[in-house]
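REQUEST FORM: STRUCTURE PREDICTION
Request ID: SP-0412
Submitted by: Lab K.M.
Chain count: 1
Length (residues): 213
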Amino acid sequence: MRTRRLAHGWELTGLPGLSPHLVAEFIRPALRAVPGSLAARLGPCRFSLPARLRNPDLSSHWTQTGERLEIEVATEGTEEHDVAMELLLCLGQALWETAGPGDRTAYLKLLLEEIEAEVSGEIDEQALEEKRLVLASRLSARSPRRLQRYARASFAGTLAEYLHCLWHDVTIRTGPDHLPALWLRRRLETLARWFPPDRGYRLFAPKTRTTGR
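STATUS: Completed
RESULT:
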């Protein structure tokens, strides 16, 4: 099994048949976009890209060992871009588990403000499913366990999208199931304050100046 060095001192292991195009065009650029401050929070990471996971029902799996964060993402039958996005999603999940009470409270406050404003959409399908469970009844809305599950899914998806925006230009999806641009920008700007982009990366495209007579 070959080991490749990645940004932030992270490592990638894979079988000899692992696509060089996937690694060069998707995995490396996506992980290079991770801000150094965020990488430092996560610590050593090792990524593995097998064709399939032991549990065929899972597309990814991560564990925190005493030495490092271990992340596995299945590649068989998955678009290369989606493999990289799944890696970023795993980083978001792991980061939520290491976040301090202050960070969790601050993010949960954002979500509660969105709910108060009757924002129905979410960042991805998993977060949307968890949000709908929270909003299903007054009892669910008052459940700390349900709110934490929703916050975890929402945070992971939002962090993945934040890193996605640093990696390359993205298109905002619209519709009732998606997070409106105003609220999405609010989340992304919050993460940018917590984990500022490294030099050479920017969250939003620079504003263009227009001239007229």
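NOTES: The chain has two domains: 2-98, 101-194.
Reviewed by: T.R.
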